[in-house]
């Protein structure tokens, strides 16, 4: 390379990657000279060298060069040099900060290919099903070319589909699915049920890393089982009671801490309404425990709002993700909050939940030996990411200079003035032809902006948490950069989508092909794939292109029907969704570059490829012309309507404009009545506005440097508040994480144990329990104590604990009459208990003739059942301890130190209880009552893969 570009100088200064980029570039000619077969075979060569002892760092230049060349052929996309830098950062376990449009999806292929040479599996973790599926389908041709297998986990994936996906070389999965699969695996009772833990975790790339690792890390993942069946009626009664209370008189609300506190008068009022005024313990009575229902009802009333925090869809309450604006299917709040909100909305109140298993994202991701991430905005959180996850942030330079113009805040005194301005600005830009993306922080605001625009006759599209729009999302995003397009998006920051100026010819061509295929496969699917009027760049494609689409549908219909309905029951709603997924996969393959289809040998794929090429060419002419127009108009304009809790999230919204050196503009229109300022300093804002006489006239923006600085200070306070909250969560969870790892490791050892191992474990449990029983019976006896009676008592206790060992225990106890030899007594009773265990194993084996080692299966089952019961109780104990340890500060004790001491004391008691109860359960088993194949379902069943999180999951 004769001349070093500016970006490379920056890269050299920051990280010294320039030499490695040069090495990769030097291999380009050799890789280009290889045939397709030779390039595919190069993967096998690299694997052989890796297994022979070559380090990944030594193989990196060749692996990256091979992946780059394969991408050029399979995807028609060649990695830029800056993308090579990003790939190296990911391989090294760093967090690569790359601007929107810089090709993070393609960057990930480089370290994924290199790391896959170990054969241990690589995970790409993203924020939603749409992105996981999109990226897997987009990159499948490249991975196929290189000889790698690809899996994708979706919320509706079955256990079998999850197992297959996690067994692949590269797996695309959401953070939620990964977390809940991990928890469910540690509730499994047989090894074939395992999904993500079927092999050790190896390497992960977290996409939109700051969103997952920072924003969503406040809330732990929880799997729950049903608790008190009478609770629904109590939540309904508590909701009626709190509706009589008034804010300010009966209770106070701290919006910053998100806490509601009853006044003395309010406490008396609600106690009277619930009929416990005469109870000395009032709301805290042991029988009624009304406090557990009243405070969630107060929180539901004052802190959680429809269309912002949740929606009601077909009579079911669904949580809205505050960071992405998406509905979190199957998720439920814990601590009684979900039931309280259900009662508030007068929908069915489902039974209360108790925690079965839980983990924080911090603990989950630290299970990976190598964790990396990529995002457009991370530098501001670099310290937290380093402290919590050990991730260094590398800011990767852009391939082209950023041309977007970022305007300052436009501050209005009221929300009314703000939204009037938003309406004027959007109308003006739309009239000029400039596309606009309007970002809101709630469904409520998105609906308001939509209504305002509709009243003015401005055509627009809305992207929010409506579950019915999930499949339409790609259509909406594909049009957001077209001339005159107006798109309203709830928390667009988490969408992970590129907005192309002038539109997206490739995506709309895929939609057109899908629209042709779906009804030909199944008549029910036509309405499901119909697009909005005006979505396509060209309305009339002409006879030739229409003919190509018809030919494609005719050629592919039979092949698709066989693939879809060969394993999915026809005529059901589930089958319709599965059919569309299969059609999408087919379209993704058909639209891939021709070189990836050479081995396919499918007439249907060939016809679809021809139709796709024809449609894309027709759309491309219009899109290219429109792109030039939009660039001349200033590119995509981003207008935020409210500041987020972090400048980083604000910048994510801005980053949707100005991709790859395109023109663009961004600004925020905010008001002093916005949520953040109300919670963290509204009074100061209002005082400043009036004190400096800057209230503005006729709804014009306020002007003041002091005001702008004050707004920035408030946002910094919000960031600090939530950062400290996350830090505190991590601090306390580190103790639990150590316990969880130890406990899960012990359970996993039992799950995978063979017959000799599990029998030896059970024998040890029986022996230890017998020895403890003898020790307890003789505790405190002096030299002249009645040892014979003590041994008889110990034998009686053991006989009741171990009915199957009654005969040998009775014989041993009878022989100890008059004995004072404690060691001999212990040895005799322990030996008797072991003999009883051997008899029980033999009896079970005889009963289970023809079964797969029934004794081992039963012993594993009883041990794991006790592990689960003990862990669930431990989690409840920890929850109670966590809620009450704060009061230790009143007695001049350090709450965290007390938490550490007391939680570890609780943990040390767990193992003995598990072992004792497992031994008792197996030796109490009525062998004669066994059926040939016992039902070994766990006591708290967790639905595998039907929905994740399952209906019993909470967060």
From TrEMBL:
It is found in: Membrane. Gene3D superfamilies: Helical scaffold and wing domains of SecA, P-loop containing nucleotide triphosphate hydrolases, SecA, preprotein cross-linking domain. Coiled coil: none annotated. Pfam families: P-loop_SecA (PF21090), SecA_DEAD (PF07517), SecA_PP_bind (PF01043), SecA_SW (PF07516). CDD domains: DEXDc_SecA (cd17928). Residues 935-955 have a biased composition (Pro residues). Keywords: ATP-binding, Membrane, Nucleotide-binding, Protein transport, Translocase, Translocation, Transport. GO terms for biological process: intracellular protein transport; protein import; protein targeting. Residues 934-955 are annotated as: Disordered. Belongs to the SecA family. This is Protein translocase subunit SecA. The lineage of its organism: Eukaryota, Sar, Stramenopiles, Ochrophyta, Pelagophyceae.
